[in-house]
Every structure is written in C-alpha cells, then in structure tokens.
Design goal:
Blueprint: E1 2-4, E2 11-13, E3 21-23, E4 28-41, H1 44-58, E5 62-65, E6 70-71, E7 75-76, E8 78-82, E9 87-91, E10 100-106, H2 108-111, H3 116-127, E11 132-143, H4 150-158, E12 162-163, E13 168-171, E14 186-189, E15 196-202, H5 203-206, E16 214-221, H6 222-233, H7 239-247, E17 251-252, H8 268-277, E18 281-283, H9 292-314, H10 318-330, H11 335-349
Antiparallel strand pairs: 1-18, 2-3, 3-4, 4-10, 4-11, 5-8, 6-7, 8-9, 9-10, 11-16, 12-17, 13-14, 14-15, 15-16
Length: 364
C-alpha cells in the first residue's frame, strides 16, 4: 500500500544519452541504482538462458564457477560473475526440489550502464517470471542544484526533527573517494539491519568529481524492496514515482509544531524540496493476519522437534505435562485468538464452495 501527496512533479524523462530521469531544469536526476532478486526456474538451462539475456542487454560476459559455493541469505552451490559486476548463483533441481533456485545481483555500476527507460523495460520482463521476488532495490536522487546543505540536515537530526527512522548516523569526513580539498561526508537514516535505509552524501567527493551533486539514496531490502519494485514497474517509468520513493523514507518536521506527527509541519527547506520533487510516496507493508493454518505451520517448523525431545525425556508423563501447558495457554487466549478460532471452525464445518487451487475457471 502506498500514500502519495502530490502529482505536480516537474520531472520528465531525459534523452537516451542520459541514464537517469531528470527534471526540466536538469537539476534533479533520479534512477534505479541496484537490483537484487531471486527466482525459481524449471531448469539450469532456463537460468543460463536468463543470464545470456542479461549478457546481451548489458553487453557483458559471465565467468562461471560451477563448484564454487556462495552464501546470499542461503547457500548456493554454483556461482558466476560478469565483467561489469553482475553476480549470479543457483542451486540445480534435486529429488526434493523440482526447480532451479536462482539469485541475481545487478549493482549500480551495471544499472547505470543503460538508459533508465531500457532498464525499466528489463524490470517489467523480469517481473513476468513466476516465483520472482526482489530482495534489494536501491533508488538514487541526485540534486545538482544542491538545494539542501549538510548543515541543515545535521541540525534537524541533532534536534530530533525527523521522522520515518529512529536511527541517524552522520559520518564526517568520509574518507573513501574524497578529493584533496573537498569535503566528503555521509548521513545515514536507518540502521544497517533496517529494510529501509536512506543515505545523503556528497557524490562529487565519492565519485572523484565525476558527478557534482548531492545524492539522496534509499536502499530497500526484503519485503520493502519487493513492494517498492512493484510500485516502480506499475507506473510506466514515471520519474516522480522513483523520486517519491526516496523522499518518502524520511521526513524533516518541526516537532514543536504539533503534539502528533500527523499535525507537525515540514521544515521549510524540506517542504520546498518536496515541491521541487513532486511529493513523496510511503511504502506500507500489508498487515500480517494470523490464521490457524499459519500457526500450525509455525508449530511444525519451530516447535515439533522440541516437543519430540521433551516426550523422549518425560515418557508416560508427557501427555499430562502437555495437557497442563495447553490448559495454561487457554487461560491466556485473547480476542484475536478467539476470532481466529471462530473463523477456522466455520471453514472446517462449511468449506468454501470454490477453491481457487483446483477450480479450472480460476486458471488464467
């Protein structure tokens, strides 16, 4: 779910000679900066076909190490790396899994190699795969006008005049890539473990003068990445949407202007920047709704082995002990548990007339 504040953006798509999307006065440029995804394919051959397509698209070439395991969230038995820096890993089908488990990472140096409009078309094609999910998605917003100064951000952070993140980490100076005589710095909003982290830094220093701008860069991971990616591909490569994903991560507000966040006003310089960008978009994950089926699955994954061990120890007394635990659990049931029980009993007695899993009319 997303919330958008404005639709009067001055952002327009640039000519294909520029890999980003920029505003009419060319002071703001926004573009995807990193894409990492997982996908399940029928065979290793299908995965190699996908990688061949990436080679052709980026004018690149892979080198494979089929006996070189790597870990990216989980262990992959084979991996490859391209000249431009694409990383790809896979586990071939087995007797237990009849699919090829695949992982691919496209870093910023690769993404920026092609025009943003072409990369958007590639993302739409990738999203068409079954069992496809994005695990990291970065977006960069470059401000060549340097509308907001470091001191303004630091002053707001020190005063606690920001929302959307509980963690702020200013790093001054930033040594890596800093030119002599120039100021290298970076301010992080969000912890390294967060699924949503914003960086504000001097791109001129970091790029050794190649890009003379201040960069706002958001890193989405896990479910936030998947939701942000869906928002991106559903908007016909609208630059305002990409920019809004960046500005929606953190807000700079006057904490003394209201007793609640919804009543607090933006700091003037942040309000002006939002007007220039075209607003902001907040990624909101669907609220998790527990069910009896999910609870059973959790018990099977997390509890069944422990219960088996306890039964081995207690022997004939295990059932008496278990009944006591269940009795204590029933005393702790809350309204949400009782509602879940009510729905589960109804579905047990009166199964749905149409099950989409086996109804041919529901197939596409």
């Amino acid at each position: 779910m997303l919330t958008q504040t404005q639709n009067n953006s001055s952002l327009v798509e640039t000519p294909s000679s520029n890999t980003g999307l920029k505003c009419q006065d060319s002071t703001l440029v926004v573009s995807p900066d990193y894409l990492q995804f997982v996908v399940k394919l029928p065979s290793v051959l299908d995965f190699m076909d996908l990688c061949s397509s990436l080679e052709a698209f980026f004018d690149d070439s892979f080198t494979w190490a089929l006996d070189s395991p790597s870990v990216h969230g989980r262990r992959f038995e084979s991996s490859g790396r391209s000249v431009r820096g694409i990383m790809a890993c896979f586990n071939p089908p087995t007797d237990q899994k009849n699919f090829c488990d695949c992982w691919v990472s496209l870093p910023g140096s690769v993404v920026s190699h092609v025009p943003a409009s072409d990369f958007y078309d590639l993302c739409r094609s990738l999203a068409a795969f079954d069992h496809f999910a994005v695990t990291r998605f970065d977006v960069a917003l470059d401000d060549y006008d340097k509308s907001i100064e470091l001191e303004q951000v630091l002053e707001a952070a020190e005063a606690g005049n920001f929302a959307g993140s509980r963690y702020c980490d200013p790093r001054i100076p930033l040594k890596r890539g800093t030119l002599p005589g120039s100021l290298g710095w970076c301010v992080y909003f969000g912890s390294p473990q967060s699924d949503k982290r914003l960086r504000f830094y001097n791109k001129a220093a970091e790029s050794n003068g190649e890009l003379d701008c201040y960069r706002w860069e958001v890193q989405f991971r896990a479910k936030h990445a998947n939701e942000a990616f869906k928002t991106y591909i559903e908007t016909e490569s609208d630059p305002m949407i990409l920019a809004g994903l960046v500005t929606g991560c953190v807000s700079f507000v006057d904490r003394e202007s209201g007793d609640r966040l919804s009543r607090q006003s933006f700091l003037p310089w942040w309000s002006e920047f939002l007007d220039k960008v075209g607003g902001f978009i907040k990624i909101r994950l669907p609220r998790f709704v527990p069910t009896i089926q999910r609870s059973k699955q959790w018990i099977n994954r997390q509890v069944s082995t422990t219960l088996a061990a306890i039964r081995q120890v207690y022997g004939a007394y295990f059932k008496e002990w278990l009944d006591q635990q269940l009795h204590e659990g029933e005393m702790k049931l809350k309204d949400r548990h009782n509602n879940m029980i009510k729905v589960a009993k109804h579905d047990w007695l009166y199964p749905p007339a149409c099950s989409h899993s086996n109804d041919e009319s529901a197939l596409i």
